[in-house]
Amino acid sequence: MGHKKTSTKTLIIFWIIAIPCLVGFYFVLQWKNEPIKLVNVAYSTSRVLPLGNKYDTSLEFAHYLLQKDDVERTFMILLQNNMELRPGGGYIGSFAIVTVKNGEVIKSAVHDTANFDGRIPDSVEPPFPMKETMHIPSWKFRDGNWMPDFPTNARVVKKFYKLGGGKEEFDGVIAVNATIIDTILDVTGPIKLLNYPDTYQSGDAIMKLEYQVEQGYKDQNIKKGDRKVVMDELAKEIIRRVKKMSLKEKILLVNKFVDSFDSKDIQLYLDDTKMAQLARAVNWDGKIDQEWEGDYLMIVDANLASYKTDHFIKRNIDYDVDFSGSIPQAVLTIHYENTAKQKDWKTSDYQTYLRIYTPANTWVTDIENCVLKPKYGNKYGKKYVGCLVHVPLGGQKDVKMRYNLPIELKNQYPYDLKIQKQSGVHNVPVKIHIKNPGLESTEDYNFYMDTDIILSDLEK
What we know:
This protein is an alpha+beta fold and 460 residues long. The chain has helices at residues 8-33, 35-44, 53-66, 113-116, 130-134, 150-163, 180-188, 205-214, 229-243, 247-262, 273-281, and strands at residues 73-86, 89-101, 104-112, 172-177, 191-192, 199-200, 266-270, 295-300, 313-322, 329-338, 350-359, 363-367, 375-379, 382-391, 396-404, 417-420, 428-435, 443-449, 453-454. It folds into 2 domains: 8-281, no CATH class; 295-457, Immunoglobulin-like (Sandwich), CATH 2.60.40. Helix content is 29%, strand content 30%. Helix 1 (8-33) runs parallel beside helix 9 (229-243), helix 3 (53-66) runs antiparallel to helix 11 and helix 7 runs antiparallel to helix 10.
């Protein structure tokens, strides 16, 4: 089977620039030329086009990237595989450097982090517990998204880029999780590529692509250096289909991309003050909220040498809060199920470094099922507990933490809670039970978490 070398420019344009900008630019023009038609079509779709701040922000970003002002803007794009979860999304297998000017990509390059990290000196002490569990001598670019706060990660990877000899100064850092492939295929429909055995469709495309580039190419007489050509071919076919989409389909795709920002599958760190403020206003910057004054919770996993096992991990959260005593108390249960049955190239026992972020003055009384002694600390105005968790193949594990909430929360009425979700984790079932003083019954909430949640915004 003959294959040409992968066009890195095509890959970059597809995964990061072409689809959002193609659609965004279309809407900029459409909005200017036929706003009434655009709104009418939007209202005919299954979900109304987000006409509020998020829609306005989408147009602002499209204009920022595509404006013809003769200014070069350079971005670092982190390509994250969230089947191998990291606190800031997924394992950074590669990253792109893209320069745009007058709405065109004028320079581009892709770096494999495994190769790039060879340029970085072994001089940066790795965060706990990388050295202790994986025997990694130093911290490098591939694990630069070790924090759940994306602005922190953006600053870290820029430093690693400089340590590796990189010269560019960046106007922004953008992180994109592999899940975005499903987002696009939801609209384009399944794709069958000539000369490849699989049909790629939403829900299984990521795993099929992973198998193709890790294993499948060996049985298809494809050279190892050409094993990622399938990504190029899929990119070209999706671009072809997007160009042929109806206005209604393009609006649906824009809706899907807005969802991807909301779920943190795309995160933005921008140096431009105005654009950074816009991203912050709609929570697209992946920042940990340090201004929230009510109860707070963020649960963060880091896959430690467990291959692609996150694809097979099911999680759910149960949170009980009791205000009936003198000190408000909470019990948090995080349930893990490893649905993988055997060890192979993609799955193994699941080992994760779990961090639980709570209000600053929390006092933890007990935590169960940590492999190592828990670590405690303060970061981003929060208290956190670090817990190494092991979930065997086909097994389940509950991590249960009991803690006292800050006494001042007892005097805040009505009670409110903010849960910030981790980038790369989706549709987590959550149950919340609140026992208020003087009431025999509890307030109960049940929902699936795919965005940050404020309890008072939900219906019981």
